[in-house]
Amino acid sequence: MTNSIIVETLRTFQPDELRSFRKFIRSPFFNESPKLVLLFDCLRKYYPEFSRKVLTKEKVFRKLHPGKIYSDEVMRKLISDLQFLAEEFLSYTEMESKYQFEKKIYLMHALRSRNLDKRFHKEFSELHKQYSPIRNIGDDYFYRNLDLTKVELGHIIGRGKAGKYDIYNELKSNLNERSKYLIYYSLIHVYKSAQDLLALSHRYNFNFHETLIYKFLQNFSSKEFMEELSGADASLYPVIAIYYLNFMIYSGADKDDSNYFILKELILKHMKAFTVFERNNLMVFLENCCLEKIKEGKEQFRAEIHDIYNIILEGGLFVFRESDSMDTGRFMRIINNALMLKKYEWADQFIDKYKLTLSGEVRDDAVGYSMAVLHFAKSDFSKAIEYTSKVKFTSFHLKFQTQIVQLKSYYELGFMEEILYQLDSYRHTLQKDKVSPPDAKEKFFGFLLFMNKLVKLKLSLKTEKPDIDEVLETLKKNMKVYEKLWIEQKLDELKR
Q: CB 3.0–4.6 Å: which of 154, 319, 452, 455 could bond 324 by disulfide?
């Protein structure tokens, strides 16, 4: 019985949820079967372990039906019914805690169908007052206002049909508002989805131009619409413009960087109009835009993204909820960027101040890697190797980047034989790796390949004059290599 769906479900309940669930199933409105209450009480005694040895269907059946012969059919029916109630309870509690707006919408539908106009107007007025002002903008802002216009439209038409008054003016106003929220909601999600698909196409190598959303955008004059919108609706234009500009930048339509700085100005100026959750997303927009610019070779954006990181940290915008942990990838990006700018003291202070914001599961390893790259940047290569040895590989990214720091440190210390041994070991491990993304594996393999060439060139300098330019030329043509710039620098050093 410990493998039954009801036991799996009850295992996820917190103690206070168990107490609430018991009240729920004891209510005649939700449950009319006393046997289900008894079944729950039997199961509850074994919470939270629900030990296989003591919890069996036969044992529970004897408590529910003393003196009767065991019936698996009866037990399966009771278990199924209790699972149904558990799912009803989860739906109910989710609705109560997160979907108060939707509850009010259903209430207004009921009030309208019963012609309770005064109550309808009161509820509608309260919701409209709460949700229509331009504040706390997030994914739900536009569709909630769209829902409100739908409910209002039903009420207007219902009364108009009854011949109570001329509905023209109200109907026109409502349909205009409804169209506005529908268009804005749709456009924001079109731009968001297009960016997500574009990012996915880069990672998994499929043609973004073949997607339906690309074809839609090709046939929709976004630029012209945004120009019209800036004059027609100045209050919401900045909101739509943020999502539009973000997509345009990510899709490569910002060669002179002007769109980025307009986007940044809009976000910082209108930040307070958004929910805390969406503010985090907006800062992700700016971070990703800067990362794309750096990929294009615009090194000046390292200083720009450092400023963005400071805004994120000062505003606590690195987590969506207070209970969340900082993303390990972002933690490491912040450090690596600071080191590229030679802000060693800042990076050291950042690690010390924000390490506790990391998840406990990865904290020691992320900090170990961070200290390794910090000491490498400061040319303390022995210390860097010491920290790499402490890192456990909890992710492919952490594994590859830690091994790269280790090999680079060996090279700087002149430990060529150690590098050759590790290269052979890492290549064998990489061949067996079925978990890491293909793109990351290819880039790491590229690093191993050119590190091997670099070491052999350095060793051969003692006896011959190798063709370093040939290796450099091959490296420049190969796009999928981690630490490409560092390898180029080391090859140039060999030429001197």
A: 319
